[in-house]
Design brief:
By secondary structure, this protein is an alpha+beta fold. Strands 15, 16, 17, 18, 19, 20, 21, 22, 23, 24 and 25 form an 11-stranded antiparallel beta sheet that branches. An 8-stranded parallel β-barrel has the order 26-27-33-34-35-36-37-38, surrounded by 6 helices. α3 (462-468) packs parallel to α4 and α4 (498-512) crosses α5 (525-534). The radius of gyration is 27 Å and the shape is globular. The two termini are 45 Å apart.
Length: 660
């Protein structure tokens, strides 16, 4: 009888820079029955003894997968799992499938007959250097499972994205994370972006925009999102571009192989609504400095290259791969928030704000404050992360602090100095005097080094918090990044590179924070995008202040309304949003929250409007996923006996987060 051809992996040879390279695969000779073959570094084709004492013999396992829609011409289907022959969840050792037709794919892999194994499928493309980009992958909380096989050859038939756990038979598939490619986003997300010379010649209210790569290369992809409720997913560009008018939020999402990043050229083409080319502007990727910035482009007439039709101020952000270690396909919690969970209680900065009148006993954002919230049955706590000048993630709310030289007597607020955390090394930060102004009165608090009780010390390091808090206490890790205001200016200066900031925080959370409920959040939409595409372990939610009367609006249109935040979360596959509670005091509050739920998103409400027993109860009733408020000791709902995650069964679900 004929025996299927077997694909054998060749381990990638390369430097650390190329550690993400997927192994190339070569065709081995036809294998006579009974022949033992070494499969890479694995022992799947060696006879072994199973757990029950039975003999495990080599078996050819045939994986058959059916797609619901055909792949793009450049896309392939891959297979990975928890045994060596399937790559042990590593992209660099994955198994490629062969296409039987446009919807059916197949691979034959030698495996031990008595072995229980787990596996997943994913869609990828390969660039010119042989590196694979994960386009889409199966993201079920539990991987597929395959039992022992007693036959010489066994066959498995699957549908991509659908497992036995899919009660609704809807595919559970999400975009991958970055490995050896970068994302460039060009953002039409402001109010005054075009400066037009002649409105009759170029009308920015009625134009179609398209990003065109000048050099085409494998692994390069241009997509866009035009953010409208329920229709914000990334997709390919129309032939004559994306219709745009003032107030629209249109973001071009460009994936570029890492090696091509500094060599790639693009062109922005502008069309009339009747599909006539008006003009173009050239973009050179080498002009994209740092992680973010502002391009100043001249749109030149299509009929006269010397004529400038308009000037464009175009913000951009660059998302680099997570720099510390490769991630894998083992599992993901990026969208893990079961509908069976109750409304959760989240302690704001621990047990609440403390630099105010009638403050709690513990200072905010200290280990003592976090533990106090947990003692009063908070399910999670929210904390704020900054990076010091020497790259240490520390916990504190404001971007800076009021201080004064040692020994100087302070009686008036104008005697205080204001310094930014990003400008201070951690050892100096621990020595600084700390002041607050409460109702016009200057109050001094113990510095970190002056506080004798470790749990009460200000500026705890993120790693200390992760190590000290019980695993049963969930954590909302808010990344602090200053926002530009609509009326001009910024919340604070920031000179630290955004990718560096994100990687430093991610590294500590991955190393020390796994095994517990953790979610990332940020007021900065681009930081949320970074956290989403740099990793596949933790969920990310977009934190917004919405249509508030309390503060000046931010410049980014995505921050202005709850619907805009929901749209942005849908575009980049965030877990959901953390909107300001002020938006949910009207009659349509429950309907607004339902709109988020209809898209599979969570909504964690926060703000002073949450700070009463009545409000906590109200937000629970209208359907908030969680409510973040001060003073768990005062406002925790009556009758709550313990925090939700104080359950061994629940905590066991988070054990797979830990990769180390």
């Amino acid at each position: 009888m004929s025996v299927p051809m077997i694909l054998t992996p060749i381990e990638a040879q390369g430097t650390d820079e190329h550690m993400q390279n997927c192994a190339a695969y070569v065709e081995a000779a036809t294998v006579p029955p009974g022949t033992l073959i070494k499969y890479g570094t694995a022992n799947e084709l060696e006879t072994a003894t199973g757990a029950t004492g039975a003999t495990c013999k080599p078996t050819l396992r045939e994986f058959n997968v059916r797609l619901e829609t055909p792949l793009a011409p450049e896309e392939r289907l891959g297979l990975t799992g928890d045994v060596k022959a399937l790559g042990e969840w590593q992209l660099s050792r994955c198994v490629p499938l062969d296409s039987l037709d446009e919807l059916n794919w197949q691979a034959t892999v030698p495996l031990q007959s008595c072995r229980q194994l787990e596996y997943r499928y994913f869609v990828y493309v390969e660039d010119l250097s042989g590196y694979k980009q994960i386009r889409r992958w199966e993201t079920h909380f539990k991987p597929r499972s395959l039992g022992p096989c007693s036959e010489i050859q066994c066959s498995q038939i699957d549908v991509f994205g659908i497992t036995a756990d899919n009660a609704d038979l809807k595919p559970q598939v999400h975009r991958g994370w970055l490995n050896h490619e970068v994302i460039v986003q060009l953002k039409f997300n402001g109010e005054k972006m075009f400066q037009v010379h002649d409105i009759e010649t170029f009308d920015p209210q009625h134009v179609q925009l398209k990003i065109v790569p000048v050099e085409m290369t494998a692994g390069l992809q241009v997509e866009y999102t035009k953010q409208e409720y329920g229709k914000s997913q990334l997709e390919n560009q129309p032939t004559f571009g994306v219709p745009y008018t003032k107030g629209d939020i249109v973001i071009f999402h460009i994936t570029v192989p890492l090696e091509k990043m500094m060599q790639q050229h693009f062109r922005l083409d502008c069309y009339t609504m009747s599909n006539e080319l008006l003009g173009s502007a050239n973009l050179v990727s080498s002009e994209l400095q740092g992680s973010e910035g502002l391009l100043h482009l001249r749109i030149k007439s299509a009929s006269d290259a010397e004529e400038t039709l308009a000037r464009l101020r175009l913000p951009y952000v660059i998302v680099q791969p997570y720099r510390y270690s490769p991630l894998d396909f083992k599992t993901t919690y990026a969208h893990y928030w079961p509908k069976s969970w109750p409304n959760l209680d989240v302690g704001h900065r621990g047990n609440g704000k403390s630099y105010i009148a009638d403050a709690p006993a513990e200072r905010e954002n200290t280990i003592a404050s976090f533990l106090s919230a947990h003692e009063h049955h908070a399910d999670m706590i929210e904390l704020d992360v900054h990076l010091t000048a020497d790259g240490v993630p520390v916990i504190y709310h404001d971007f800076g602090l009021r201080t004064a030289p040692p020994g100087k007597q302070i009686t008036k607020p104008d005697q205080l100095e204001y310094v930014l955390i990003k400008d201070i090394n951690y050892e100096l930060l621990k020595r600084l005097r700390i002041f607050s102004v409460i109702n016009g009165r200057v109050v001094e608090y113990p510095s970190h080094n002056a506080e004798s009780r470790p749990a009460h010390r200000i500026f705890p390091r993120l790693v200390e918090v992760l190590d000290e808090l019980p695993k049963s206490l969930g954590i909302d890790v808010e990344i602090k990044w200053p926002q530009r205001r609509q009326g001009g200016g910024s919340e604070a200066e920031q000179t630290i590179d955004k990718n560096f900031f994100a990687d430093r925080v991610l590294h500590q959370v991955i190393q020390h924070g796994c095994g517990r409920p953790i979610i990332f959040s940020s007021f900065d939409a681009d930081m949320c995008t970074m956290l989403r595409f740099k990793q596949n372990i933790f969920p990310v939610m977009y934190l917004t202040q919405g249509q508030t009367k309390k503060w000046q609006p931010f410049l980014d249109l995505r921050t202005r309304t709850f619907e805009a935040a929901v749209n942005n979360a849908q575009a980049f596959e965030l877990a959901g949003t953390a909107p300001h509670a002020e938006d949910f005091l009207g009659e349509n509050a429950a309907q607004m929250l339902q709109q988020a739920k209809d898209l599979g998103q969570i909504a964690v409400l926060w703000g002073d409007d949450c700070n009463s027993r009545e409000r906590v109860k109200y937000f629970r009733q209208i359907g908030a996923t969680a409510t973040c408020y001060d003073r768990s000791d005062l406002y925790m709902p009556d009758g709550k006996q313990e925090a939700f995650f104080k359950s061994p069964a629940l905590m066991a679900e988070f054990a797979a987060q830990c990769r180390i």
